[in-house]
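Protein in question quoted in full.
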Amino acid sequence: MSPVFPELLISASDSARPVRLVGSGQVLDGSVAAWAEANGFSGKAGQLLLVADKDGTVAEALFGIGDGLDPFSIRSVAPRLPSGDWRLEGVEGDAARQAALAFALGGYVFDRYKARPEKAPARLVVGDGIDLDETLNIAAAARLAREMVDTPAQDMGPLQLETIAREIAEAAGASLRVTTGDQLLEDNYPAVHAVGRAATPHRAPRVLEIGWKLDRTDLPLVALVGKGVVFDTGGLDLKPAAGMRNMKKDMGGSAHALALGRLIMQADLPVRLVVVVAAVENAVSGDAFRPGDILSTRKGLTVEVGNTDAEGRLILADILTRAGEHQPDLTLDFATLTGAARIALGPQLPPLYTEDDDLAEGILKAGQAVGDPLWRMPLWSGYAAALDSEIADVRNDSAAWAQAGSVTAALFLQKFAPTTGTWAHMDIFAWNPRARPGYPEGAECQAIRACYDYLKSRFGQ
């Protein structure tokens, strides 16, 4: 997994060509004006036009900004530029920093399985006022999450998640605790074990826990929790083919938690950090957990399994409880949890759940500032009864009358969330279902940049 973006952002170049920002209706000069008119370029937001010199060599690019520059629109520039070095003209200050990050995000290509690599990437020269190291680290966090999600389940199983967690921990001087297979029962992770036990032995379920600066009790403690279902067949409640096609991405929550954890440690934020991930495969075998089973959880609550395809909340129940044992000041969990979230808000806008108004406002504001939006959804107590079970403490599939599947899933998690500090749950999609410039079809990173910006604001030095 690529640690940085040296090929996309650079500090200097003698051969960088300009990307000129052109507003709607802006008057251009001479031959450039004629070329723009001939190609229908009017400065409309998102338009890109390459301009050659008299020798036919591309000398510059024109990028349409409409009525004004949105720095995050620069994400669409990187994949459309020819290889070589480029510089943005007329962008300064915070807009330049945002544009540089957007360029790096837009240059992401997943070509691990291509016989021939894609073209060499375009590179952007960034100004002296930009913290290049931090910008590269943020872009690399997004890239790590996206590469993990894009990688097929054959090469991104529980062991691979463990390997990535180990690399992250070792690089930061953090600890890593791994609990695998039947040891999960001995260490009281019964729900994680139940969901993952049907997988083959080399893909045995496991809980991964990174600890950083835990001896610094003078610092606030942040817990990150991630759902790591490396492939979700649906279990015995088998998904149809269309529903199973992209389930390699069901470990997106773990990818996001690990990537954000690495970013926090790289920035040396003044916090203690715990990252807890459950890595399982929801497979089908003679040992698979069944509809109607009653599962124990680490918290002591019992769960009636109404649907084996609602497995993510079961593993989160155990690891949210584990996070709570550290008595965190703030807990953030990430999970590709429900299709209902997509019905409510679509693929580009993840729902955010928390009862803490200040926390919600802080994350939403940060998301707006860094072009990583979320939308707050309610933990509506009127639907809590949909989780009632006649024979257990709770059921994992809410009663049909409640309908609001993303809300009831969040209400289920709330039963296991830490009771110290504040907690927020993000029901991410981690996927672009439609390709557009800067957003290739496939893995997407959501909420990491918003949460990092919020953490910097709240706990920063």
